Amino acid sequence: MKEAVGSILDFAPRKLIRPGLVLLLTQDAEQLGCAAAEVVAKQLLAKPTSVLALPTGRTPIGMYRFLAEMCRQGQISFHSATTFNLDEFVGLEPSHPGSYHTYMRRHLLDHVDADPARVHIPAGDAPCLDCECDRYESEISRAGGLDLAVLGIGENGHIGFNEPGSPLDSRTRVVALTPSSRAANAHLFACPEDVPQQAITMGVGTILEARRLLLLANGPAKADALYRALHGPIASASPASAIQLHPNVVVIADTTAAARLPEIAT
Ligand code: GLP
Asked: Is 87 a catalytic residue?
């Protein structure tokens, strides 16, 4: 990481959207993954016992690849860190190929030195889902709260699986997935009908309590959602707009996801 940290974070164009909300622009998904990994790596170096919220989706795959490489080279360690995934599908065993448990093993956990006792992913197959949501909230509190929440963004403006309409003070709970979110996740399953109808997600309110937020947006399909997140009204119709309420946010977007932002034209 000696070569990596202090590179992209230094040269990527940086726009102050408003105090406490910084946008970093990258040329493509590769640079975005590298820049996001550098933010997470710096967090781990500054506080090895950091408590992280971690996302799934296609966007963070590059970030995880860079983090795995940094860990392999001994530049960072996950050993003392605690992680909480943002969400998981309801009804899937952890070993199901479409589960976010499987995603996390494939993209991060099989490649880093994380302590399994400090890795948390909601149990979508728990016999009592409401109890599992309460347990998850308690575990986050017991860990001392989230230091850094890394977020993707859905085309419909979701964060985690907080779909449009999610209260901005919502906590970890069971939610119904929209057709758009089920379609966006269909690639994880043998056929689109296999995508579960429900998920457990960390709430918007839970996410907002993190000390820092890092939102990642890649590709033209995210341009509208990112515009609404940064410049739209703060409303449950666009859950990602809640980040405007947070005092310490970094957004990393590639140029196509940032295309609608007025800051880009200036
Ligand atoms: C899933 C996750 C979200 C994530 C979204 C974005 O729906 N539950 O947390 O933000 O994917 O996915 P992608 O990065 O593939 O666009």
From this structure: yes
- Which structural domains are found in the chain, ordered by start? 2-260 (3.40.50.1360)
Active site residue 85: no
Q: What is the pTM of this model?
A: 0.96
Residue 156 catalytic?
yes
Question: Ligand 1 within 6 A of 152 CB?
Answer: yes
Ligand 1 site, residue 187, Cβ cutoff 6 A: no
Protein residue whose Cα sits closest to atom 10 of ligand 1: 152
- Report strand pairing: 51-54 vs 173-176: unpaired
Distance 56 CA to ligand 1 centre (A): 6
Neighbours of 6 (CB within 10 A): 12
Radius of gyration of the chain (CA): 17
Q: Structure tokens of 109?
A: 């956990």
* Separation of alpha carbons 210 and 4, rounded Å: 26
pLDDT tens-place string over residues 207-248: 999 999 999 999 999 999 999 999 999 999 999 999 999 999
- The pLDDT tens digits for 161-189 are 999 999 999 999 999 999 999 999 999 99
